[in-house]
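Progress note, project year one: complex with adenosine-5'-triphosphate.
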Amino acid sequence: MSTPALRMSTLFLRTLREDPADAELPSHRLLVRAGYIRRVAPGIYTWLPLGLRVLRNVEAIVREEMDAIGAQELSFPALLPKEPFEATGRWTEYGDNIFRLKDRKGAEYLLGPTHEEMFTLTVKDLYGSYKDLPLSIYQIQLKYRDEARPRAGLLRGREFVMKDSYSFDVDDAGLQASYDAHRAAYVKIFDRLGFDYVIVKATSGAMGGSASEEFLATAENGEDTYVRCTSCDYAANVEAVKVPVPQPIAYDGLPAARAEDTPGTPTIATLVDHLNVAFPRQNKADLPWQAGDTLKNVIVMVVHPDGRREPLAIGLPGDREIDEKRLGAQVEPAEIEAFDEADFAKNPALAKGYMGPGVLGERAESRIRYLLDPRVVDGTVWVTGADAPDRHVIGLVAGRDFTADGTIEAAEVRNGDECPSCGQVLETARGIEMGHIFQLGRKYAESLGLKVLDHNGKLVTVIMGSYGVGVSRAVAAVAEGCHDEFGLVWPREIAPADVHVVATGKAEEVFAKADELTVALAAQGIQVICDDRRKVSPGVKFKDAELIGVPTIVIVGKGLEAGTIEIKDRATGDRREVPVGQIVEAVVAEVRGAAL
Ligand code: ATP
Ligand code: MG
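Model obtained:
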């Protein structure tokens, strides 16, 4: 089977010498500079011929592995009616994150951000018996989300390509089997895509459901932070980390709390300094006051999808910050906004910078919901705000002097924290979420009425699993992991071509030979880009070849008089001269060998 070669003289491509102004990450810069993608609007990109080839290669890998586990491909429209999304509550829940539109009659539509509703309804439409199940179906399709922060080119687009699949089973054991099959397929997909990744425990977010794992490409520039244990195999997205809860401590006999003047101490740092000067610790065995001895109370505004605004106060040890993503995952689908001056003005009981548990909580004066970091167990002793400017309480005991409305996992997770699984030390790292698999459970089947008759003739609600791969994101994630100072360095399986033939010099024989080689390689099914441009200098051609990043570069030029052609490995930089007579064979071996 032969694939027509791409010729640089006619290829719809312009490489750029300058970095695009809006690109911060190497993958974004290089994909634009090497002519793979072109920005149309924030988070919206055109796929140029080379980019489209890479995208298609990623799709092919995903498709093969999904087909291999018996999943069947279909395709839903991107333009969807509002009604199913109203039935599941997501028309409202999605808030500003979806693109909404109206038809000429005023009927409301949306551009699908994800397709749970369509998958569920279509199965309901066509199936009715346990004999029809298990079923796994998938699509590779465009999704639309009006992301608050479109970022880094393809990594966070507003239009992007996702593979989404769903499994349908009659019982929990069936779901587990479908989940396991998908997990195994994902391992194959991400191994073939050629980047380093980790599988971490995840939260299931707005989708509900239980067991959930993410596949993260390890990347310094990733938006996701995960932890892994330095001792056991525990790994989790920080959003999903559950802090090990200490045992409560007996507080009999502890001295009573006392309020003290602490002028000019609205921050933890100023408070700690002041405590060490004005109230040095008596007991020689005690360390000086530290941030971790203080209970910091932070207040935020939770904005619900229906627009309702609800203040939320969080009490946490003063040496930790709130992690916005962890907090966000806890309140989803609501969003977090700052509690601003106007909000403080409306709540005169709150002394900004000196807030304590005294005024917080649903039963307290403010009626503001108050949640504690799980470390603040009964019997722990704190310095915290006394609810009056320039005053703090020393020796406030949790459980004795204050209680809250519950706990929340919102404090940052740090390097060195305790592993919730084995108690050893956690370390943090960053990654890009490439895939997410989770046991969705019965949420959508229930709200949309997807039931089948079981083997006793009884109607049962179907149990579902949901599995996504960021296909267009994968193009950027691979680029992010596979480049050097000169350009992209594609893994062979997703490269836009196998071989980049560069004809250098002015001699007619060079161009004739490069063309002959290109045709011969193409005849063997090898994908070739041939740089046959006549008036372009060798330097520019080499630079372009490096920038474009095809794995094997073949240089037809100077060596020809001596009867040789050079093969260069883009990744390692290794070069070797091969006699002209053996070049086709040598290149084919290189391509096929590496593909093994
Ligand atoms: P994120 O937390 O990065 O926003 P998500 O949890 O919203 O992702 P899912 O709804 O689980 O993502 O979508 C499945 C996959 O689609 C993700 O694992 C990711 O690879 C990809 N994806 C999600 N949002 C985008 C986007 N805006 N641009 C490109 N790919 C995306
Ligand atoms: Mg998202």
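DSSP finds 14 helices and 31 strands in the chain.
The two ends are 19 Å apart (CA to CA).
No further modelling is planned for this target in the current period.
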